[in-house]
Amino acid sequence: MSIQEIGKKFATKVSPVLGAGAVGACPLCWVGSASLLTYLGLGALVTAWIWLVLGFIIIGVIGFVLDFRSHRNIRPLLLLIAGSVLLYVGRYVFVAKDLGYWPIWGTGAILIVVAIVLNRKEFRKHTSNTES
Fold first, then answer.
1. Which residues 6+ apart lie within 8 Å of 123 measured at CB?
2. CB 69 within 8 A of CB 57
3. Residue 26, Ramachandran bin (φ over 0: left; ψ between -120 and 50: alpha; else beta)
């Protein structure tokens, strides 16, 4: 087995897990994480959450790019990027004390979930075609 075959097999096993990193950018996770950090006395880390969410988005994009290389369908990747931009801008650029910008980040969150479901379907369809 060549290095290229090993790399491809590794990518097909790992890329769906990396793509699931986009789920870490879920707005519901922010509330729970901030509450947990505050409860544990680590409330100062809440300000670093912006960078953590950006890291989750980058991990998600990397996973989706690896999946794109496998199934060659650009739609999940484009949905993830559009959803991530809306989610990040709606949550961190247009900051409000209440949920005033929920239509922006809510739409982004929905696009991310749709991208994850679509990407998973495409990945499964591709892997079942290559195995037969």
1. 15, 16, 67, 70, 71
2. no
3. beta
Roughly what angle, to the nearest 10 degrees, separates helices 27-39 and 49-71?
140
Give per-residue pLDDT as tens, 36-92: 667 777 667 667 777 877 887 888 888 888 888 888 899 999 998 999 888 888 877
Flag whether 35 is in a domain: no
Tally of structural domains, the chain: 1
In angstroms, the CA 13 to CA 105 distance is 30
Structural domain harbouring 102: 48-132
107-131 residue pLDDT tens: 988 898 898 888 888 877 877 776 6
Answer whether residue 6 is part of any domain: no
**Based on C-alpha coordinates, what's the Rg of the chain?**
17
CB atoms within 10 A of CB 17: 10
